[in-house]
Structure formats: C-alpha cells, structure tokens
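I am writing to request your help with a piece of structural work I have in hand. The matter concerns a single protein, recorded as an amino acid sequence and a row of backbone structure tokens. Could you please explain, in whatever detail you think fit, how the structure tokens follow from the sequence? Thank you for your consideration; the sequence and its tokens are set out here:
>
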Amino acid sequence: MKFTTRDLQARLAALGFHPGPIDGLHGARTNAALNDAMADRVVMRPEALFHSSGLHRIHWHWTAGAYGEIQLELDHYNALIDQDGTEVAGTFPTEAQARYHPGLAASHTRNANTGAIGLAVDCMAGARERPFRAGRYPMTRAQLDGLVRVTARLCRQYDIPVSRWSTLSHAEIQPTLGIPQRAKWDICWFPGMDRPGDPVEVGDRIRAMVRGLL
C-alpha cells in the first residue's frame, strides 16, 4: 500500500491522534501521534492503520452538470448521486477499486486521488457562487440524503472515520489538507441554505448527518 506523509497525517487526525499541521512533513509531532496510534490499535506497521483496500478518505463533489449522468462524469467519479438520490457507479466503482485494483483512482481531486473515493452529486450546471445562483439544476434534497447515505455505507465498509480529515468536500481539501485546488466551492451549499457558507462549517453539517446514520 502506498501513502504519503500527508495521507498518514490525515489518517492519524481522523483516528483522533494529532500530528500537528497536515503539511506533509514527518516531524516529531507526527512521529509521536503515529506511535500513539499504533500502540492504541496494537499494530506494528503504519500501513496497518489503513484499511486493507487502501481506501482511507471520501471526497464530496458536485459535477457542475445537468441532471443525468454523462460518460465524462462517470469517468471522473467513483459514484454519482442522481436527481432522485439513486447511486450510480462510475467507470471505476469503489468496490472494484478496492477488491481488484488497490490504489486505482478516478480523477476527481487535484493531486489527491489515490486512496480517496470520489462521490459526486450530479447537479449545479450554471450555478454561481457570488452573487449566488443555484442555476436550473440545483442540488435536490434527495441528492443530499443520497450523498449522506452512501457516505455512511462506505465509512462502515472501509473503516473510514467521519471527520474533517477523512470525509470532506472538495472545497475543504485546500484549507484542511493543504493541497492547492482551483477555486472549488463544492460543496458549500445544499438545499435549505440561502447562500453558500464556509466550506468547513458546511462540511461539519453534512458530517453530522452522516453520524446520524452510523
């Protein structure tokens, strides 16, 4: 299994051990957190802190497309959530990725795909962040519920804690994991909000919904 120091730091933080900043530098605080985590889980190798599939994070997206899946979307995400909340497997479905191709990644997050499951709500074509406009294809409540439901199932399946470091939106990747993205604002809004919010605060609200199903 291949993982970066940043992946290790994020995993440690998700498990409740604090390595300091998620900065990709394996210093004293990261090493102390690693030793504490391995002692707590009674394992001898850092790799054993991860699920055997190699999957350790879930990234939430929206496609910025119209309702109805197209091949480009299927190629870029492990799974899509369609207008009525139904899960649609991507070209690289999560189960096949874990079972047959550990480490294989759909290309959904800049420089952060390996080991990360990309779940995308198929919506938000024509949306604009400022001034806010949800467009003709806004996220539906059924899609939000589907995203939460699928996330909860995958967390159980792959031993992924519900945390800011392991279940997070595309908009949270840069502020939380320190991996530069390109002005992404998915998911800073969902049904019931009158405007986009702080990405981490919105992520916390979605994480609370996921915990409610676990």
